[in-house]
Design a protein that fits this description.
heterodimer; A: alpha/beta; Rossmann fold; 3 domains; about 15% strand; B: alpha+beta; five-stranded antiparallel sheet; four-stranded antiparallel sheet; 4 helices
Chain lengths: ~575, ~180
């Protein structure tokens, strides 16, 4: 049966199980939007800025493990998606980005709102298509969804010229596809597995470092069995948080720039580093020379290009993390490393992570710990980027994969609010907290309107310190406290929220924290709390740039800068 | 690590933008292409791309893996350590007068090159061979004055039964002793 391109796009999405998409219409997308009501199975959420659509699709995908779909019109709509696509690319998030394009006869003529979006996004997509023929749409969608969510996931862009959406073609959704150039490694090489098992049996100070690959591969259970059987301590990367329960006795939290002192010490002292689904980002390794200097390294990753990219490894295992761990589980013997674990516990005592200073001031760390208390850890927590992100990683205890959603690779300020929106849409029965900074929130604050229009009950905690706090922290530590362009005047977030018809509270003292959190959670709908926190609090520990992970600095004595600070209402 | 010249052969799908994807990858990761040559392969809809890159073994291995990740790239082989036949074609337009024309033709003959165009003040020579051979001839022709050079870049093929086609015997890759 003949259908229009717009109908085919909808049919394809339904075939792929899409029930929600985040988008923003425009001229060339009118044929699509005009068709959309014929397909009530697809819920369309209208964002206020296309960047919000991409981040929402990203948050949706991370919370559900399914493909997130976003859509934007040609030209500026498409370019507004770029940050969100790059974010998904760097964090390996399955996403389909649909962009409108001018009609085929206008392509290449610099037509109104014409931009080469497939060219622009070439280095930040896993793959991309320009659909130049209505009849090709079904195969393009089939391939795009397959590529986005298999192997190492990532964003795939489909550019849709207006007349391709209008023209008719026969529709049947293909069952098979042929992608001879697309290889997905599955199990690890038997020889390398054997080599790994041997190293594991010989090691006396082994450490597992788990990354987002464990979450993507849904291998948390296997990781737990593996760690327990061989009694190996587990640390995680930022995006590996939740892949191993942080309340587990073998969990030693996050390592890296703002990781725990004991995790970083373990990285320095270990004789066998088992890296699982992670990519040795500079934020985790610090100065590479001081990273696991005495260790043999086993690297398990699905992407062969990640192996040996930043760090030379002894045993490369290319394969799906889950399958590799299952295979390894059959090859390892129960062991214990009592001395090593005692050593780590000593370090934990010497460099405690979750302690929060007493005192009158409203500390951001305290707020995070209270949100943890109030939610009993059973919540999805989404952050923006900055100090609040690191405090959340440090002070909320995450026990479930997918519970912590954050922009890792790209470090995108403004990710928090739209991503939390996507997470809540994907998991409507879960409490979703967006913990954001005053700087980060202001980058995408317009999505408050989306929360209201589409009734998305995200709870927003703004850790408002009146600064671009993380940048200020670097100025504090490395630029002699010259706070240039970091003091930030903010609107009264309570009144802003109320203007969007979202109830809100301001909190100044520790006593008010818990009641406010409880009130937010009891409210049926979105809610915002503006926490006016200690302005010049820093995130510690911190591995300074260029230093090795062993050289982390801890909370020093407080000195306050004399640099003038802008007033905040 | 010492930089050496590597020859990579990629089998790619004939799809719009595939060269753009390859070029973009090289640019983005800071890898320099010495030469790149593209043409149809023995299989319909597949092209064979020969890429010459300079770099350490580890860097070129990273290039190979990143190329292999492109969806439109079916297969990439680093054939540097194989027994290969490598050729390049060059067209060289040399200034010529009636006085020295025969001398130039003699040089062309020595290199088994062809004269493909003759004009009153120039000769165009077509030569195939490896880079060294083409380089040697150009050195000799320099004295006459070279007006224009067009070179294809290297194309290469593994000798004997090994090959770079999809489904064929894998070529030798640089063994990396790591354990």
């Amino acid at each position: 049966m003949k259908k229009t391109g717009a109908q085919i796009v909808c049919e394809c999405m339904i075939n792929e199980g899409v029930d929600v998409m985040f988008g923003f219409p425009g001229g060339v997308l009118l044929p699509f939007y005009d068709t959309l009501p014929e397909y009530p199975q697809i819920r369309h959420i209208l964002v206020r800025h296309e960047q919000g659509a991409a981040h929402a699709a990203d948050g949706y995908a991370r919370a559900t493990g399914r493909v997130g779909v976003c859509m934007a019109t040609s030209g500026p709509g498409a370019t507004n998606l770029v940050t969100g696509i790059a974010n998904a690319y760097l964090d390996s998030v399955p996403m389909i980005a649909l962009t409108g394009q001018v009609a085929r006869p206008f392509i290449g003529k610099d037509a109104f709102q014409e931009i080469d979006i497939s060219g622009i996004t070439l280095p930040i997509t896993k793959h991309s298509y320009v659909a130049m023929d209505t009849a090709s749409l079904p195969m393009i969608f089939k391939e795009a969804f397959y590529i986005a969510q298999t192997g190492r996931p990532g964003p795939v862009l489909i550019d849709l010229p207006k007349d391709v959406l209008q023209e008719q073609a026969d529709f049947s959704y293909p069952e098979k596809l042929s992608l001879p150039g697309y290889k997905i490694p599955t199990r690890g090489h038997p020889t390398q597995l054997k080599n790994a098992a041997k190293l594991i049996s010989e090691a006396s100070k082994p450490v597992i470092i788990a990354g987002r690959g464990v979450v993507i591969s849904q291998a948390s259970e296997e990781l737990k069995q593996f760690a327990e059987t061989s009694q190996i301590p587990v640390i995680t990367t930022l995006l590996g948080i939740g892949s191993f329960p942080e309340s587990h006795v073998l969990s030693y939290g996050m390592a890296g720039m703002h990781g725990s002192g004991y995790a970083n010490k373990a990285l320095v002292d270990t004789d066998l580093l088992i890296a699982i689904g992670m990519r040795f980002d500079d934020r985790i390794t610090g100065e590479i020379k001081g990273f696991a200097p005495n260790a043999k390294i086993i690297h398990i990753d699905l992407d062969p290009a990640e192996i040996g990219k930043n760090v030379a490894v002894n045993v490369p295992i290319v394969g799906d993390v889950k399958a590799v761990l299952q295979a390894l589980l059959k090859m390892i013997e129960p062991k214990d490393h009592i001395d090593w674990i005692n050593q780590l516990d000593e370090w934990r005592k010497a460099h405690p992570m979750t302690d929060i200073r007493d005192g009158a001031e409203l500390l951001p760390q305290y707020i995070i710990s209270q949100i943890y208390e109030a939610t009993q850890g059973d919540s999805i927590v989404v952050t923006g980027v900055g100090q609040h992100q690191m405090w959340t990683a440090q002070h909320y205890i995450f026990n479930h994969p997918g519970a912590f959603i954050s922009s890792g690779g790209l470090g995108t300020m403004g990710f928090g609010l739209p991503a939390s929106m996507g997470a809540k849409v994907g998991c409507p029965d879960k409490t979703v907290w967006c913990i954001d900074g005053d700087g980060s929130l202001q980058m995408t604050i317009q999505e408050l309107a989306t929360l209201v229009q589409d009734d998305i009950a995200v709870k927003i905690a703004v850790l408002n310190n009146g600064y671009l706090g993380m940048v200020r922290q670097w100025q504090d530590l490395f630029y002699d406290k010259r706070y240039v362009a970091t003091p930030l005047s903010c609107p009264d977030f309570v009144r802003v929220a109320e203007a969007y018809c979202i109830p809100a509270l301001a909190v100044n003292t520790r006593e008010e924290v818990m009641p406010a959190i409880r009130q937010a959670m009891a409210h049926d709908g979105p809610f915002l709390i503006n926490f006016l926190v200690e302005p010049e609090e820093n995130v510690y520990p911190m591995v300074p740039p260029g230093a090795t992970v062993a050289e982390f600095i801890e909370q020093p004595k407080k000195e306050v800068s004399s640099w003038p600070r802008r007033s905040t209402p | 690590m010492a930089a050496t010249q590597h020859t990579l052969v990629a089998i790619v799908e004939d799809k719009p933008g595939v060269l753009n994807r390859i070029a973009s990858l090289f640019r983005r990761r800071g890898f320099n292409i010495d030469s790149i040559a593209v043409g149809h392969s023995e299989v319909a809809h597949l092209s064979r791309v020969t890429i010459v890159v300079n770099g350490s073994n580890a860097m070129v291995e990273q290039v190979r893996k990143q190329l292999d990740k492109l969806i439109d790239v079916v297969r990439v082989s680093d054939i540097t350590d194989n027994d290969i036949t490598a050729r390049e074609l060059a067209l060289i337009k040399v200034k010529a007068t009636s006085a020295n024309r025969s001398e130039i033709i003699e040089i062309a003959d020595i290199f088994r090159a062809n004269i493909v165009d003759v004009a009153s003040d120039s000769l165009t020579i077509e030569i195939t061979g490896d880079e060294d051979k083409i380089g040697s001839m150009m050195k000799l022709l320099k004295g006459f004055g070279i007006r224009e050079i067009a070179r294809t870049g290297r194309i290469a093929m593994v000798r004997g039964s090994l090959g770079t086609a999809p489904g064929e015997q894998p070529t030798k890759t640089r063994a990396k002793k790591q354990l």
